[in-house]
Design goal:
By secondary structure, the protein is an alpha/beta fold. It has three domains: about 1-130, no CATH class; about 140-245, NAD(P)-binding Rossmann-like Domain (Rossmann fold, 3-Layer(aba) Sandwich), CATH 3.40.50.720; about 265-455, no CATH class. About 50% of the residues lie in helices and about 10% in strands. The chain has helices at about 10-35, 40-65, 75-100, 110-125, 150-160, 195-200, 220-225, 235-245, 255-260, 265-300, 350-355, 365-370, 385-395, 410-415, 420-435, 440-455, and strands at about 1-5, 5-10, 140-145, 165-170, 205, 230-235, 305-315, 320-325, 375, 405-410. β9, α13 (about 385-395) and β10 (about 405-410) form a beta-alpha-beta unit. The chain starts with a strand and ends in a 5-residue tail after the last helix. Belongs to the bacterial sugar transferase family.
Length: about 450
């Protein structure tokens, strides 16, 4: 895994993006070479633009999920993702092609050929060589422990499948340890931990134990492994890196205090605010026809009001009124008692079900963003009734209020619709990852992921 601007990206994903960008760059140069005489003047004029075009388009497709771990598990999923990438890439490609300085060598035939080549590269990535480079940087992992935490580590590496990380065995922490893993995969080796790791050619060791202070696994042996060049990770660091979440069950207050991240500097605040204002204004202009149509559909089906305003908890626990399109019946809470909104809630109208699926109901929150109550990206704002309940039941729940709530967020694109305390715990783990690592880069990733979720129906509502 590579850490880019505090966000973890699989190293194989980076290799695949670079490989495809290089392939597209070469293809663009070939097209120009066939259409014009290949000389120093053409190379000097075309190379910078061709490189910019290739990298930009592959980054776009990467953000749209073409290179996402576990992609390509079945034909339908592959077809949907490739079709979406091509459909969005082609118009963007036309726009970028027009802006880039190609000199006097660009004309309609070249432009058409370049766009066709782009579609070909995306299709090849999706259907033929999705796994190219997947085994180049395979890391062999040994897990310390055989209990429930060890099972959770293996599950995290196989759901979805991650061909770049391979669990080679489970090293027992001590006699009498609870065994939840396949007994055939337990490492039995006469020697110390380092000798076992060298024998299995291990690159990383994951300590899947709650207590790591030397009781069952001597710290000296782990230190020897680290000094020998083997990376050693605890549960918190492992899940943050692989799953993009900060696990509640392995979290300590000292880790929050002394660990990296959770920075709330004024520079980041200013950049985030400017980004929110600019992007929100652009989205409002583009979405105005959609919002007008949604308002008419709601009014025709269920009458007024079209919008609803509800009290939510924002930055620092401050209350504010969120504005959304009304997707439920007018008598959704006629008894006055707050209720969790479920994925297939019978209170949702037919129009409401559609606008919630494609997130049109969230668009009026852009006015909350302009006002400053919300950000484009952040934890989902919850109602005070549920916040009080969740703060009592879930450790560190209040940490999510260290940043502004968002129209969309890391938890919304990584976890399905939440309608219980257990769902709130799972979503909080993603929220804590965002609070710890939020940057402009991660905000951009979340916005692209939101586009992917809306277009494919994959992920959270």
């Amino acid at each position: 895994m590579l850490k880019l601007f505090n966000h973890y990206v699989p190293s194989n994903t980076v290799l695949q993006v670079l490989f495809d960008a290089f392939l597209l760059f070469v293809a663009v140069m070939v097209v120009f070479g066939l259409q014009s005489k290949l000389d120093a003047e053409l190379v000097a004029a075309v190379v910078p633009s061709a490189m910019t075009f290739a990298v930009t388009m592959m980054l776009l497709n990467g953000a749209l999920g073409l290179y996402r771990t576990g992609f390509g598990g079945n034909f339908r999923d592959t077809l949907m993702r490739v079709a979406m990438s091509i459909a969005l890439s082609i118009p963007v490609a036309y726009g970028i092609f027009q802006v880039l300085p190609w000199g006097e060598f660009a004309h309609d035939a070249v432009e058409i050929n370049v766009v066709v080549l782009l579609g070909f590269v995306v299709a090849v990535r999706g259907f033929a060589v999705r796994r190219v480079g997947a085994g180049v940087l395979v890391k062999r992992i040994m897990v310390i422990g055989t209990g429930a935490d060890a099972v959770a580590v293996e599950h995290a590496l196989t759901h979805p499948a991650n061909s770049s990380l391979q669990v080679v065995g489970f090293y027992p922490a001590g006699p009498g340890e609870d065994v939840r893993v396949d007994p055939k995969r337990i490492v039995h080796f006469d020697g110390n931990l380092l000798a076992a790791a060298n024998h299995l050619r291990v690159n990383e060791i994951i300590v899947a134990l709650k207590e790591r202070r030397g009781g069952v696994i001597p710290l000296r042996e782990l230190l020897d492994c680290k000094m020998a060049g083997i990376k050693v990770l605890d549960l918190s660091s492992f899940f943050e890196r692989v799953r993009g979440q900060v696990r509640i069950d392995s979290l300590r207050a000292s880790w929050l205090i002394y660990g990296e991240g959770f920075r709330q500097g004024w520079g980041r605040t200013v950049v985030k605010r400017v980004f929110d204002i600019v992007v929100s204004l652009i989205l409002l202009v583009l979405a105005t026809p959609v919002m007008i149509l949604a308002a008419l559909m709601i009014a025709i089906e269920d009458g007024a009001p079209v919008f609803y305003r509800q009290e939510r908890v924002g930055l620092g626990g401050r209350l504010f009124k969120v504005t959304k399109f009304r997707s439920m019946r007018r008598d959704a809470e006629r008894d006055g008692k707050p209720r969790w909104a479920a994925a297939n809630d019978d209170r949702v109208t037919r129009v409401g079900r559609f606008i919630r699926k494609v997130r049109i109901d969230e668009l009026p929150q852009l006015f909350n963003v302009l006002k400053g109550d919300m950000s484009l990206v952040g934890p989902r704002p919850e109602r005070p009734f549920f916040v009080d309940q969740l703060t009592r039941d879930i450790p560190f729940y209040a940490v999510r209020h260290c940043v502004k709530p968002g129209v969309t967020g890391w938890a919304q694109v990584r976890y399905q619709y939440g309608s219980s305390v257990d769902d709130a715990i799972n979503k909080l783990q993603y929220d804590l990852y965002y609070v710890k690592n939020h940057t402009l880069f991660l905000d951009t990733v979340v916005l692209f992921e939101t586009v992917r979720v809306v277009l494919t129906g994959d992920g959270a509502h």
